[in-house]
Amino acid sequence: MSGNPLLAGLAPAHPGEVLREDILPAVNLPKTEIARRLGISRQTLYDILEERQPVTPAMALRFGRLFGNSAEFWANLQRDHDLRTLEAGMADELAGIEPIAA
């Protein structure tokens, strides 16, 4: 993948990291209240915050509504994280695929 060479080799942040490091400190609400407003269990929220669970499309809709941004923001964070993680794990396999010349 091309892009900023300063970011080369860095995987995009998991949405849970963004939520944990940036969003939750700014809203200053207890995690229990966040989970209640989202209509999810505290355990589900903690699993996302600890990057053990992905942000599903349904959760992206919930986060977008609660935090006043878009579901696309959350879904794109998850997609980018997933693709980069897979790309790193599949590097040898992908290197063995000969591209079709246009």
From TrEMBL:
Q: Which UniProt keywords apply?
A: DNA-binding
Keyword Lyase in the entry? The reply is no
HTH cro/C1-type domain location, by residue? 28-74
Q: What SUPFAM superfamilies does the record tag this protein with?
A: lambda repressor-like DNA-binding domains
Q: Would the keyword Methyltransferase be found if you checked this record's keyword annotation?
A: no
PROSITE patterns the record matches: HTH_CROC1
**Could you give a GO molecular-function term held by this entry?**
DNA binding
Q: Which NCBIfam families match?
A: antidote_HigA
This chain belongs to the protein called: HTH-type transcriptional regulator YbaQ
Species assigned in the record: Methylobacterium frigidaeris
